[in-house]
UniProtKB/TrEMBL annotation:
Entry keywords, A to Z: Phosphoprotein, Two-component regulatory system
Origin superkingdom: Bacteria
InterPro entries: Bact_response_regulator (IPR050595), CheY-like_superfamily (IPR011006), Sig_transdc_resp-reg_receiver (IPR001789)
Official protein name in the record: Response regulator
Length: 122
C-alpha cells in the first residue's frame, strides 16, 4: 500500500458507545474507519476489502478478539492488530504482531501507537 493512501482501520466491539467514540476519534485523526459490533460482521467487512489495522475488544459474544484476528489473518496474513480488554489475565498471551491495551483506553495513547502498528512512522 502506498504511504500516501489513507490507512483503513476496522474497529470491533460489542458496545455501540465504544464503537462511536473510536470511529469519531480515528476519523478526525485522518483514518478511514469501519466498525463492526461482532466478530462475524468483522469477518464480512474483511472479506469486502482489506484493512491496514484491526482494533478489537477481547470479550465479545460469538467470537472473541483473538478468534477475530485469526479469521481476518486468513484473509490478510500479517494483519496488524490491537486487542483491548479490561482483563489482561483473561486475554492471555497475544499472537505474534498483536499489541494489547487495557481499558479504559486513552485516545491520545491510542493515536500515538497506531502509526507504529501500520508501519507509517513513529
Amino acid at each position: 500500500m502506498p504511504l500516501s493512501a489513507t490507512p483503513r482501520i476496522l474497529v470491533v466491539d460489542d458496545e455501540e458507545a465504544i464503537l462511536y467514540v473510536f470511529e469519531r476519534y480515528l476519523s478526525v485523526a485522518g483514518y478511514d474507519v469501519a466498525v463492526a459490533n461482532n466478530g462475524f460482521d468483522a469477518v464480512r467487512a474483511g472479506e469486502a476489502g482489506p484493512f491496514d489495522l484491526l482494533i478489537t475488544d477481547f470479550r465479545m459474544p460469538g467470537m472473541n478478539g483473538i478468534e477475530v484476528i485469526h479469521a481476518l489473518r486468513r484473509l490478510k496474513p500479517g494483519l496488524p492488530a490491537l486487542v483491548i480488554s479490561g482483563n489482561p489475565i483473561e486475554a492471555g498471551k497475544m499472537p505474534d504482531g498483536v499489541r494489547f491495551l487495557s481499558k479504559p483506553v486513552s485516545m491520545a495513547g491510542l493515536l500515538g501507537i497506531i502509526p507504529s502498528l501500520i508501519g507509517h512512522g513513529a
